[in-house]
Amino acid sequence: MEVSDEQLMLDYAGGDAAAFEVLYRKHRGGLFRYVVRSVREQRLAEELFQEVWLKVIEARARYAPQAKFTTWLYAIAHNRLIDHFRASGLRSVEMMMDELPDPPARAGEQPEQKAEVREQGARLIAALEAMPIVQREAFLLHEEAGLSVPEIAEVTGTEVEATKSRLRYAVAKLREALKD
Question: Read out DSSP for 113-153?
Answer without folding.
Answer: HHHHHHHHHHHHHHHHHHS-HHHHHHHHHHHTS---HHHHH
